[in-house]
Design goal:
Layout: E1 4-7, E2 11-18, E3 33-40, H1 41-50, E4 54-57, H2 65-77, E5 80-81, E6 93-98, E7 104-109, E8 131-135, H3 136-140, H4 145-153, E9 161-164, H5 174-183, E10 186-190, H6 191-198, H7 203-214, E11 220-224, E12 229-234, E13 239-243, H8 255-268, H9 273-287, H10 299-322
Parallel strand pairs: 1-4, 1-8, 2-6, 4-5, 8-9, 9-10, 10-11
Antiparallel strand pairs: 2-3, 6-7, 11-12, 12-13
Domain Carbohydrate kinase PfkB: 4-295
InterPro entries: Carboh/pur_kinase_PfkB_CS, PfkB_dom, Ribokinase-like
Protein name: PfkB family carbohydrate kinase
């Protein structure tokens, strides 16, 4: 049985500038560093691949310098592209400004990844054991959302589908969003995105509403809360808050992507949703201690990180027992 991640989202090139703070309107800042790196869906794919999952890409890459750059990055990570490159467009790009507090601001330019047709996706075949993923970015583009929604709805019923609505959720037409949510097996989103879909409330209330009103076929939802960890709510009624890990963050770009990739990879290896969420929290924590969006750790690094944290908790417990 196959155990692949079939990624049908988008990949772009990130142009990353590090600055102490965003410039005021009409002023200019000099960046302390600059890098050109693969971004977008690439970050999620890398997280899954580095934690032991075979990854294939069923989205669209372009023809031009940015498309060539992404193809080289895919090859370096062992990620196969199933589709032919666009004959007329280069891949898109995104300017990311990382400020001194590790937060980021983006300006993006859509390219080939924003134009998807069913004919283009014809080579993308799924097999038993595969998990399919897409993000809200591809669904926000007028030139890709209808074909992608049709393709998702036509997936075999036994193929799990994972969806991340992303910060552009407000740009996805509600009918398209509703169709995709109705086919979702696992929804992973941050707190703002969850509220955008299901309305205001505490995280547990919103998660229950997501399952009962929007993701009727889902096994569960994950609501990410950055350094605080995440809430996992299952369709069978189980809910747990999975704590995050305190680390010194230097770059939060790609942390959500890393979390989703690690979570899906862990599920595919048979971990429970709770175990998978803790594994994903550790992956995201490690990623923010490193510069660059595709800074996902390996599975071995995550296991070492968790083992160290477990030993520290055990030692602390023994110290507390000795003083009581």
């Amino acid at each position: 049985m196959s155990r692949r991640l079939v990624h049908i989202g988008s990949a772009v090139v990130d142009y990353v500038y590090r600055i102490d703070a965003l410039p005021a309107p009409g002023t200019e800042k000099t960046a302390s560093s600059y890098a050109r790196v693969p971004g977008g869906g690439f970050n999620m794919m890398v997280a899954a691949s580095r934690t032991g999952m075979k990854v294939v890409f069923g989205g669209q890459l372009g023809t031009g310098p940015d498309g060539d750059f992404l193809r080289a990055a895919f090859a370096a990570e062992g990620i196969e592209t199933l589709t032919q490159p666009s004959p007329s467009m280069d891949s898109g790009n995104c300017v990311a400004m990382i400020s001194g507090d590790a937060e980021r601001t983006f300006v993006s330019w859509p390219g080939a990844e924003s134009v998807i047709t069913l004919d283009m996706m014809r080579p993308v075949k799924v097999s038993p054991g595969d998990r399919v993923f897409t993000s809200g970015y591809t669904l926000s583009y007028p030139g890709s959302r209808d074909a992608l929604a049709d393709w998702i709805e036509a997936l075999p019923a036994d193929i799990p589908f994972v969806f991340d609505p992303t910060p552009v959720i407000a740009e996805i037409p509600r009918p398209i969003l509703d169709r995709v949510l109705a086919r979702t097996t696992w929804l992973s989103c941050n707190t703002n995105e969850a509220v955008e879909i299901a309305g205001a409330g505490d995280a547990q209330t919103v998660a229950v509403r997501l399952l009962s009103e929007h993701c009727l076929k889902a096994e569960g939802v994950v609501i990410r809360a950055g350094a605080h960890g995440c809430l996992v709510c299952l369709a069978d009624g189980g809910t747990r808050a999975i704590p995050g890990f305190a680390v010194h963050a230097v770059d939060t770009n790609g942390a959500g992507d890393t979390h989703i990739g690690a979570f899906v990879s862990a599920l595919s290896r048979g971990l429970s949703p709770w175990e998978a969420a803790r594994f994903a929290n550790a992956a995201a924590a490690l990623s923010v201690t490193r510069h660059g969006g595709s800074s996902a750790p390996t599975g071995h690094e995550i296991q070492e990180f968790l083992a160290l944290r477990d030993r520290a908790v055990t030692a602390q417990g023994k110290e507390q027992e000795a003083t009581t």
